[in-house]
């Protein structure tokens, strides 16, 4: 016997919400999903009328749904925002080629302007070239650092006021667990903020912060949204992998665990006497950094000097030499050259 | 989309680096003479004697560093029977013995909660465990109290109240007081009567009208009579009305805490020592994060836990790993008793507690520093500062766990998001709408008759009852109660106290306009 939708009590339900366990019809689910994102945007005061907002678009499900919902809510609730799709081309053969095609199709569907920034354009290196230099084991360090900046640089070029990304509740819960496991108290505190990056940097926000990954997939499925579903071919490191697997198990025991962990993260309070790293800006590129040189600039320097290990480990002592463009000693060079593949 | 962020890489390298096996030819790292008997961490090999010294020193150092236990203070040791709490009791014995160079100067007692009824033990098994426990307790020479979990049905509502701590908070003063007390003891030379007087005084000084219901207990060891089969059955019914093992485990912990607290209060103990090891606390931190109890990590896992006010919980075993404790117990013959828990036979995915324990064990095998890292992370967390004025009124504390409520914060929060999701998924919207009033509320306001005779008032009230009850709880305890089929089976002290809180809240609402200062704390959160 078909189950009746618990929201309208008229139509037959077609799905059970992973987040609440309620049975809903298609229309009521769409409405709930969209209006919940709207509530998040309004209650956190994410945008102001007249702002230009860059939507980080990778072609994956999260950013595809984000672009769709942002476009829709902007119209439905008259936010008065100027939306732009922002995409990064890392230059990974077989991965980006396909996903960029998806982004381009999305652009036509949603009639939003699209800007693609390439690694080659920004750094002079494609991801494929970087992998050749540093090996598969460390490349995700590069792809993460460079992408973060690429989005900002692209946003700056387009005079964007804010960037929003498709990070969902699962991503955030996973990050809380990971930062807790590895004792990173500063990131643990920051990772549940809905908006990050003040002073100079373009603010980034996460409108899907409270949306479950499973609901995002359901939404995309029933809306027949076109997305590219391959995970980055360079797999994430073991620690995040652990946190992810753990979160999936938790969710299977108690579906609310995802939001419960975010609640925990939002309410953690750090003792007053615990030192937090002071955030400054990179002396070379101006990006936020706790060191004199930001991670991206150190990595780039390593690539350009043919010393790929620079920036993968901790090499604080070398910072002044890099800044002054001084050569490194034989010993320092030897240590930084060899990379495990 | 690849979710990897810039920082992932470096940590993995730091975390790696495994353990080396113990080599038999190795010498003790401390005395450089004795041959190594064990390896507690990579590189730290100890001979038997040095290990003992290290272990004993650590216990004293933990107490000495925190200077929280006053000389002469009555301290209640919570003994589950497991390795950590058994080691703790043994350390206290060791510290009080004449042979100890720096003698501990407090007066210990032991409490054990018998949870057999809900952990699948038969009457015979329970009796056997109890006998085993009792012989162990007798050997300790300390006064002891064995409390069956069924005693929860006889607890007074006051156990859920915050009691303002006494004036004894100056360590120096306490030391002086102790010395004087000792001298007077020598002159009158009758310790027992003095403690008895003290006992009566503490009982008289608490203004609890329900106290009369409690049996008068002697300061010496107490062993409750075997619980009535009625209570045992009620307890079993209560636990079977909880639909998940996760919530059952949480409920058990709450009841156990209340019983220990009540025992401490009625017998004049002002400190309770819990035997949680560093390993256990690391697992507990991860578990509690997953249970939405992030706000209370410092209270739930820190050295001292002052949520109850007058009775402070301390965790002196928190610097020992479970491995160290097992080695110690094995080498020096510290006895522990195996008592099955709620989840003893459960699979790894049966509850969040079991899953987290399993997860931490596995990740610890791959990254040996995980437990100590997690433990150190939780060290850096503090008690969430009260955002509102710190009124002593209890409404701003969770009814069950007594922590400051973490549910009346900003609209832009995970908690609010869950309420919004509920709202959009249901046609009737109970939590968020302020206009909602049950028919019985109207009846109370005016004519004295229910205006809506077609509706079953009692059922409306019951539905209301649950949401009114939930409002008294912190985020995490709400999750526990949400997994209960009915509230009716909860022990009376919980229900009575909840009713009292809600009456206060209603009163507050009526007089709201006449109150001069903005006292948000005492009002139950509506959103
Ligand atoms: Zn519907
Ligand atoms: Zn990657
Ligand atoms: Zn830079
Ligand atoms: Zn030695
Ligand atoms: Zn609570």
UniProtKB/TrEMBL annotation, chain A:
InterPro entries: CTU1-like_ATP-bd, CTU1_C, Ncs6/Tuc1/Ctu1, Rossmann-like_a/b/a_fold, TilS/TtcA_N, tRNA_thiolation_TtcA_Ctu1, UPF0021_CS. Pathway: tRNA modification; 5-methoxycarbonylmethyl-2-thiouridine-tRNA biosynthesis. ATP binds at residues 56-58, 62, 88, 166, 171. Keywords: ATP-binding, Cytoplasm, Nucleotide-binding, RNA-binding, Transferase, tRNA processing, tRNA-binding. Its main location: cytoplasm. Residues 280-310 form the Cytoplasmic tRNA 2-thiolation protein 1 C-terminal domain. Its EC number is 2.7.7.-. It is found in: Cytoplasm. One of its GO terms (cellular component) is cytosolic tRNA wobble base thiouridylase complex. PROSITE patterns: UPF0021. The keyword Nucleotide-binding applies. Belongs to the TtcA family. CTU1/NCS6/ATPBD3 subfamily. Plays a central role in 2-thiolation of mcm(5)S(2)U at tRNA wobble positions of tRNA(Lys), tRNA(Glu) and tRNA(Gln). Directly binds tRNAs and probably acts by catalyzing adenylation of tRNAs, an intermediate required for 2-thiolation. It is unclear whether it acts as a sulfurtransferase that transfers sulfur from thiocarboxylated URM1 onto the uridine of tRNAs at wobble position. This is Cytoplasmic tRNA 2-thiolation protein 1.
UniProtKB/TrEMBL annotation, chain B:
One of its GO terms (molecular function) is sulfurtransferase activity. InterPro entries: CTU2 (IPR019407), Rossmann-like_a/b/a_fold (IPR014729). GO terms for biological process: protein urmylation; tRNA wobble position uridine thiolation. Pathway: tRNA modification; 5-methoxycarbonylmethyl-2-thiouridine-tRNA biosynthesis. Pfam families: CTU2. It is found in: Cytoplasm. GO terms for cellular component: cytosol. The keyword tRNA processing applies. Signal peptide: none annotated. Its main location: cytoplasm. Keywords: Cytoplasm, tRNA processing. HAMAP family: CTU2. Plays a central role in 2-thiolation of mcm(5)S(2)U at tRNA wobble positions of tRNA(Lys), tRNA(Glu) and tRNA(Gln). May act by forming a heterodimer with CTU1/ATPBD3 that ligates sulfur from thiocarboxylated URM1 onto the uridine of tRNAs at wobble position. Belongs to the CTU2/NCS2 family. PANTHER family: CYTOPLASMIC TRNA 2-THIOLATION PROTEIN 2. This is Cytoplasmic tRNA 2-thiolation protein 2. It comes from Pleurodeles waltl (Iberian ribbed newt). The lineage of its organism: Eukaryota, Metazoa, Chordata, Craniata, Vertebrata.
